Amino acid sequence: MIKKGELYWPEGEGRKRAWLNSKSVYAAAEKNPVKFWGNIAGELVWRKKWKKIYVDTPPRVRWFSGAKLNITENCLDRHLAARKNKAAIIWEADDPARPARILTYYDLYRRVNKFANALKKLGVKKGDRVGIYLPMIPEVIVAMLACARLGAVHSVVFGGFAPHELAIRIDDARPRVVLSASCGIEGQKVLPYKPLLDHALELAGHAPAHCVILAREQAAAELTAGRDHDWAALEAHAAPVDAVPLAATDPLYILYTLSLIHI
Question: Are the C-beta atoms of residues 231 and 111 closer than 8 Å to each other?
Fold first, then answer.
């Protein structure tokens, strides 16, 4: 039986491959967390270094005050020199008959840049919210990083959520754009997403300016003129975009808990 407060350490190969594989690392973090996290942050790419690592002014606590960065430059740009042609994403479908997809760091960098510019052309800017209602496919990561590239705050809603729950989240986040797909696939079952999204938008009080729909071959989606856009067409005609410098304390995403359903 595991006792409260007791730590269990992995052994063997799992410990060797772990990023933090020594008890001394945890001891250093516990002894001086400000110094520890300052050293960790020093491994990242910053547009502007912090004035102070940690500021405690109750009731507010601030980390890396005054610093600026963009997380996508740390996820993508800085890896291109050494990892450009190495796999960044290896995606496998839940159906073994469907082929895997591999995106290298350069593939992902290029797609994120292009899709960020596509969102920019739809009016998305720093501080705007973008709803993401997609199945578990690589485009989810492309979408999240594209939002972060612009400084937009993304909100991922589990693909396939019922219209009512999706509408609640749309009304709360008030996204400028919602990203979705024609369908999701669960084993052999095809679940059309577009009708669910359309119903959610009928229920919601907030109306996003645009919806971007990823067409998948398993199901067609009827686009609403003036509001809906084809994902592939937008991305195909978009040029790269520079990352927007953000304060270390700027929000990156909104993640809702199930309690929101009962509000």
Answer: no
Domains parsed from the chain with CATH numbers: 24-68 (no CATH), 71-262 (3.40.50.12780)
Cis check: omega of the bond before 138, within 30 degrees of 0: no
User: What is the average pLDDT across 237-252?
Assistant: 93
Q: Compute the average pLDDT of residues 75-79.
A: 96
Under 8 Å CB-to-CB from 67, ≥6 apart: which residues? 46, 48, 49, 50, 51, 247, 248
Per-residue pLDDT for 66 more than 70?
yes
Q: For the chain, how big is the Rg over CA atoms in Å? A: 21
Q: What is the pTM (predicted TM-score) of this model?
A: 0.89
